[in-house]
Amino acid sequence: MALAVRMRVPCRALLCAGAQLRGAALGRPEWAAGGGDGARRFASLRVLVEPGAEGRVAVMKLKNPPVNSLSLDFLTEFLISLEKLENDKAFRGVVITSDCPNVFSAGLDLREMYGRNPGHYAEYWKAVQELWLRLYLSNLVLVAAINGSCPAGGCLMALTSDVRILSDSPKSVIGLNETLLGIVAPFWFKDTLVNTIGHRASERALQLGLLFPPAEALQVGLVDHVVPEDQVQSMALSVMAHWLAIPDHARQLTKAMMRKATADRLIKQREADIQNFVSFISRDSIQKSLQIYLEKLKQKKG
Ligand SMILES: CCCCCCCC/C=C/CC(=O)SCCNC(=O)CCNC(=O)[C@H](O)C(C)(C)COP(=O)(O)OP(=O)(O)OC[C@H]1O[C@@H](n2cnc3c(N)ncnc32)[C@H](O)[C@@H]1OP(=O)(O)O
């Protein structure tokens, strides 16, 4: 079953091969294995993976400063890291956290969706789909240690985890705020949210583009625990231990049973979803909304 689920995600190998080629073409070092205790430690420019204390858990630190926006290069490095972990039988779980202060992830990189050509939009969206499918159907236990702001695509990524731990800082808001940008969360973003907090709460959250502060995120069920910032990672590891007490095969089959229909909905219409995205994002009105939003972000500083 696990194999069947994996095989349903098409083009992954191609995408990853493409990512490696792109990395090589950019003249970057690709993957650096750590020395000393880090037999299984590896890093790319934007993703650092190190074994947790017990070895069977990896801690994946996202480090695409300043805000971990999900650029195409970052997405592909993230995908390759995940693939490596999935293929390494020593690992059973991954804690995903941020190396950027106060921000887990600012979501999709707006610069990938503004002022580019249709071919670029298609390539970008395919990578976004791929990361979502990969995370959502992962056989590993995924725990999101959300140590900062987590809007839109950042929230989507966190929602693919099995458990979410949020820091209690006022900066740690989480939600799918797409409507605030004048854009619409695609059906699979919506499905992921509905599967987590239910239909009515999702309807309200999506239409209003709500970014929930920690106490409200906990109340609505968007996160499972809220803890002080310095305890986010230790809490994540302790929750992980609980999940790893369950035999993998039973847990994995159960996870697939719960998530397969949602993933299949996208898998069945991936190409159409890419075309919808390209035509939506290319509209003058949407480009204008993105431009205004990007300017607002810049002005915030001044
Ligand atoms: C039919 C199909 C339809 C499909 C429709 C499309 C659906 C696409 C869905 C989109 C989902 C998304 O994820 S869109 C992205 C949404 N993200 C946000 O709204 C977050 C925006 N950012 C912030 O609110 C803040 O940056 C922060 C709270 C995350 C952090 O605040 P902080 O004060 O620490 O940092 P700054 O705001 O000063 O930002 C620093 C720097 O980063 C740039 N930045 C921020 N976010 C993004 C981003 N998402 N993409 C690209 N760049 C980003 C910001 O402009 C600053 O840049 P400069 O230093 O150059 O000024």
Automatic annotation (TrEMBL):
* Top-level taxonomic group: Eukaryota
Report the main location listed first in the record: mitochondrion
Q: Which GO terms describe its molecular function?
A: delta(3)-delta(2)-enoyl-CoA isomerase activity
Membrane-crossing segments per the record: none
Is Calcium tagged as a keyword? no
Q: Name one GO cellular component term.
A: mitochondrial matrix
- Main EC class of this protein? isomerase
Q: Which pathway or pathways does this protein act in?
A: Lipid metabolism; fatty acid beta-oxidation
Localization, per the record, is:
Mitochondrion matrix
The enzyme's E.C. designation? 5.3.3.8
Keyword entries, A-Z: Acetylation, Fatty acid metabolism, Isomerase, Lipid metabolism, Mitochondrion, Transit peptide
Catalytic activity field:
(3Z)-dodecenoyl-CoA = (2E)-dodecenoyl-CoA; (3Z)-decenoyl-CoA = (2E)-decenoyl-CoA; (3Z)-octenoyl-CoA = (2E)-octenoyl-CoA; (3Z)-hexenoyl-CoA = (2E)-hexenoyl-CoA
Q: Per its UniProt record, what CDD domains does this chain match?
A: crotonase-like (cd06558)
Q: Name one GO biological process term.
A: fatty acid beta-oxidation
Q: Please state which protein family the record places this protein in.
A: Belongs to the enoyl-CoA hydratase/isomerase family.
Task: Please give the function described in this protein's UniProt entry.
Answer: Key enzyme of fatty acid beta-oxidation. Able to isomerize both 3-cis (3Z) and 3-trans (3E) double bonds into the 2-trans (2E) form in a range of enoyl-CoA species, with a preference for (3Z)-enoyl-CoAs over (3E)-enoyl-CoAs. The catalytic efficiency of this enzyme is not affected by the fatty acyl chain length.
Quaternary structure, from the entry = Homotrimer.
Protein name per the record: Enoyl-CoA delta isomerase 1, mitochondrial
The upper taxonomy is: Eukaryota, Metazoa, Chordata, Craniata, Vertebrata
